[in-house]
Structure formats: C-alpha cells, structure tokens
C-alpha cells in the first residue's frame, strides 16, 4: 500500500481535458437562476461588462494561482501547500488554507447534491406529464410535495441517493476512465443541448425581450450595487476556495497551457451565462422582466409552467431538466475530486474505496440540508435551519478565508523566484499584475465580500424573527439602515418558503445573502409551501 501523503492522485491524458473539466466546474446553476436576473436588473450589457471585468481583474489571478499551485506540486491543495510551506520555511499554520478548502468542498457538495436530486426528479416529472396544463399554483404544489412535505421526505432522500450514486459511479472508475471520459463527453454535450434549447427559445419564446433586457445597455439601471452584484457573482460561481482548481491543475498534462486555458474558461463561462440568460428569459417569463424571480421559483416553477404550453411539452421539460442535471452533475464531480484526492493522499487508500467512503459521508451530511426543508424545517438555531448555517459558514467564512490565506501566502510568504517558478512562463505585465493583485487587491476585496455576506445573512435572520444575541443591536455597520443597498422594488411578489414563516419581500442581492423566509403562502396556493429562492446557496453551483 502506498505511504500516506505520497499517493499520486492521477493525471489527464489529453491537454484539452483541463479546459472541459474547468468549464464543468464553473458553469453551474447560478448561470441559470441568478445571472439572467442580475443582468436584467443591473444594466443589461453594462452588467455583463462589469462581470467580465471582475472576472479578469479579481478572480482570474486567484484561479491561476490555485491551478498553478496544484500543477507545480502535482498534488491536491493540502500537500501542495505543505510543499510550498517547507520550501519557503514558513509556519505550519498556513496549512489551514488547504484543510479548510477541503472542508468547504465537502460541505458545498453535500447540498449541491440536494439541488441535483430535485432536478433529477423533475426530468421524470416532466417526462410523465405532471406539468401538463399546470399553472403556478400546481407547479408550486409539485415542488412542495417533493421537497417540503414531511410525509414524503423518504422519496426525496431516494432521489438524493440516486443522484449521488451517479456521481460516485463515475468518480470510482478513476481520473482517466471515469472523470476524463465523462467530462470530455458530458460537458460538450451539455453545451450542445443548451444551444438546441436556445434555438427552441428563439423559435417559441420572446427572444426580443430577452435581448433587450440582458444584452442592451441600460445605464440608468447601473449603480454601486451593480458592481457589488458583479463581484459576488464572479467570486462565488467559479469554484474558488475549495481546492477544485488545485486538483484540476495537478491533473494537467505537461503540454497544457494553463493560463490560456483558464482565460478560455472565463470567457466560456461568460458566454454560457449570456446564452443561458437569454434562454431562461425567453422560456420562463411572460413579460418584459423577471418580476423578482430567480432561484427555485424561476427554475422549478416558472420554467415548467411556461414550457408546458409548448408542443411536445413533456419531451421539452424533460430535456431542459436533463440539461440542469448534467450541469449539477459535472459540478459535483469536480467538487468531489479535491476531497477524494486529499483522502487518498492522507490514508493511501485505493481510489474506489476512497470514493465510496467519501460519497457515503457526503450523502449523510447532505441529509442535514435535505431534512431542513421538511422534517427539520421548524428546528432552528439562532433563527436559521441547518441548511442556512451550512450556507453561512461556507459562503461567509470558509471560502473567503481560504481565498485570503492563499492570496496572502502566495503574495507575501513566497520568494519572487519561487512564485514565478510556480506561475510558470508568463509575460512580465501579467506577472506583475498577478503579484500585486495577490498581495493587496484580492485579500481586501474577498474580505469585504465575506463580511458583506455574513452581515447581510445575520441581519436577515433578525428580520425573520430571530432572537439571537446579534439581533439585540441592529447590524448596520456596513451600509446604513441595511447591510446591502440592493433593494428589490416594493411591488415584487413574495415566494413560498419551506416553513411558512412571514417576512417582507425579497432582496435583489445574491441569493446567499437573502432572507430565509417569505410571506406565508405560495404562488396562487397558500395551502402549499415550497422552497424559495432565498434559501439557495449562491455560490454552491
């Protein structure tokens, strides 16, 4: 048996595999249920330019750093950090960056799989015609019956297990026979499927309104809040701070042009977000705006209701949610890799056993989130369910902290020679920008994002009736009366919450920052409760 911490984690056989794997890691549900809403709200094409600028100037350097770190060490992020710490003769406390990233990946995967299970169930619901002739109230009742009904939680657990088995089955076959083969087929196939659905949206949808809302320039809608929304979306949707880029970097072939591939991934992610935004707007809306919808409500209520009006609606709905399943599936495969790689390096266990054990642990941990929507919906600590606390810990603490530690360690603890060696051949201008972004810009920006995330989440818990100690003094230290100025129009409709709490309308901020409760009722059916968009972790998928 290999000695612990010396197991070789694996390697891709083709240089283009890194690109497809990275696209699978970055293209997630946020491209479908968050980006089109944000673009339509914050200036259309101007928001897209802001988002692209945030990607290139802030998050791209961190993506390059994490991937270069893994490629340089040929190990996952824990062993990669260990090797650099020894080379630079720095404190072992820096190892926290690697270990916390593995914890973050594990936790995020645990509830990403829950979302995947909902989409998987919807493939079958659509194919069986459950949405035929359905309106908003019927679609909300279907979602509530799957997710929020305490009497049906075992069926929800079954879908959850089914989805994770699909992930574990591929991962257990190895880096080449499993991960590489699957990603090289599934990711391009998903993009082709998205193009087909986009063509369908053009044919049957309201593509003119989508272009006007998402691509046209609306400077009157641009504000400071638009920059904040672009920063949040750029940081939380690229798999940063979870060891994903490090493990993918360690898998690259010697001929892979890492920095060019990462730039191509960033541009592809933006293109997919635009394409998905146009498609979702054309398919899921019946007016000239999203009317406050995103997340669960947009994808699992509005989308099937609108698609049910099309010819061959059963086939169309099943195809749309098959695309959603494939998106979450590839994301989950990438999230599983750093955890499995760490476990193998730590224990020396064979890959099949490692994948099975980690998969079982993910399933058990995911039950905490799954049951938070039904059996444990009323079990709250500090006003929040277990799912909300997992969301807050990962999004507000672990992921920003890992990003900050990696940036500070790379910028301040490594010698210029070692940092340039790790980065590899690069133009002098790029290397200079990268160095100072890692030293100064990224730590400050990410710290601000993490504080905003945490303060707003805690404040919303207070708004929903929490009597926790932090609610004794209103949390107003960042931006006046509210921690975030991105307020939704007063006439935006409420959506159904998992436990029937009552609160004011939603906020137009990243979903991870939003309130876990809404008015007591659902769209057209006050007797049923469904998960709301505010309960969805923004960065997880």
Task: Tell me the name of the CATH class of the domain at 15-79 and 95-381.
Answer: Mainly Alpha
Which strand-content bin applies to the residues?
A: under 5%
Describe the global form: globular
Q: Tally the helices.
A: 19
Termini Cα gap: 36 Å
Mean pLDDT: 82
As an assembly, this protein is single chain
Rg value: 22 Å
**Structural class assignment:** mainly alpha
Percent helix among the residues?
55-70%
β-strand number: 0
Major sheet summary line: none
CATH fold-level topology of the domain at 15-79 and 95-381? Amino acid/polyamine transporter I
Topology at a glance:
Blueprint: H1 17-26, H2 29-33, H3 35-41, H4 45-73, H5 77-88, H6 96-127, H7 136-147, H8 153-171, H9 175-204, H10 207-214, H11 224-236, H12 244-251, H13 258-284, H14 295-307, H15 313-347, H16 351-372, H17 386-413, H18 416-423, H19 428-463
Helix pairs in contact: 1-9, 1-12, 1-13, 1-15, 3-13, 4-5, 4-11, 4-12, 4-13, 4-19, 5-6, 6-8, 6-15, 6-16, 6-17, 7-14, 8-15, 8-16, 9-13, 9-15, 10-13, 12-15, 15-16, 16-17, 17-19
């Amino acid at each position: 048996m290999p000695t612990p911490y010396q197991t070789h984690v694996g390697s891709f056989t083709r240089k283009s595999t890194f690109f497809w794997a990275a696209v699978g890691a970055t293209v997630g549900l946020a491209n479908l249920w968050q980006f089109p809403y944000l673009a339509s709200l914050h200036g259309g094409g101007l928001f897209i330019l802001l988002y692209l600028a945030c990607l290139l100037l802030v998050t791209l350097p961190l993506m390059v750093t994490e991937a270069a770190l893994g490629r340089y060490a040929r190990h996952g992020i824990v062993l990669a950090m260990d090797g650099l710490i020894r080379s630079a003769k720095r404190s072992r406390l820096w190892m926290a960056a690697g270990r916390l990233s593995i914890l973050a990946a594990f936790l995020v995967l645990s509830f990403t799989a829950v979302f995947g299970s909902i989409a998987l169930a919807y493939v079958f619901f659509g194919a069986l015609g459950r949405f035929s002739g359905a309106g908003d109230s019927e679609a909300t009742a279907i979602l509530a019956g799957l997710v929020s009904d305490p009497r049906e939680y075992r069926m929800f657990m079954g879908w959850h297990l089914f989805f994770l088995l699909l992930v574990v089955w591929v991962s257990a076959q190895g880096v080449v026979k499993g991960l590489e083969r699957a990603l090289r087929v599934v990711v391009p196939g998903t993009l082709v499927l998205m193009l087909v659905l986009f063509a369908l949206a053009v044919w049957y949808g309201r593509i003119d309104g989508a272009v006007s809302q998402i691509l046209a320039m609306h400077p009157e809608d641009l504000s400071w809040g638009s920059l904040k929304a672009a920063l949040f979306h750029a940081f939380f949707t690229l798999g940063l701070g979870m060891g994903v880029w490090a493990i993918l970097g360690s898998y690259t072939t010697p001929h892979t042009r890492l920095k060019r591939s990462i730039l191509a991934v960033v541009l592809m992610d933006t293109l997919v977000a635009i394409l998905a935004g146009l498609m979702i707007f054309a398919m899921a809306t019946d007016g000239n705006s999203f009317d406050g919808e995103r997340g669960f409500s947009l994808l699992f209520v509005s989308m099937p209701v609108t698609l049910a009006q099309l010819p061959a609606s059963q086939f169309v709905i099943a195809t749309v949610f098959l695309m959603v399943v494939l998106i979450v599936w590839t994301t989950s495969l990438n999230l599983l890799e750093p955890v499995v790689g760490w476990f193998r390096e730590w224990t020396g266990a064979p890959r099949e056993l490692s994948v099975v054990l980690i998969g079982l642990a993910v399933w058990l941990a995911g039950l905490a989130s799954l049951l938070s929507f039904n059996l444990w919906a009323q079990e709250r600590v500090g006003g929040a369910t277990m799912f909300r606390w997992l969301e807050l810990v990962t999004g507000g603490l672990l992921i920003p902290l890992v990003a900050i530690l990696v940036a500070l360690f790379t910028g301040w603890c490594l010698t210029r020679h070692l940092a340039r060696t790790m980065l590899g051949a690069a133009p002098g201008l790029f290397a200079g920008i990268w160095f100072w972004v890692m030293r100064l810009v990224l730590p400050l920006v990410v710290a601000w994002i993490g504080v905003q995330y945490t303060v707003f989440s805690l404040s919303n818990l207070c708004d929903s009736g929490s009597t926790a100690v932090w609610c004794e003094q209103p949390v107003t230290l960042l931006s006046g009366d509210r921690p975030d100025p991105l307020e939704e129009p007063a006439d935006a409709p409420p959506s159904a919450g998992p436990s029937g709490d009552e609160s004011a309308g939603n906020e137009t901020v990243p979903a991870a920052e939003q309130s876990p409760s809404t008015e007591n009722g659902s769209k057209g059916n006050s007797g049923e409760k469904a998960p709301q968009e505010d309960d969805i972790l923004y960065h997880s998928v």
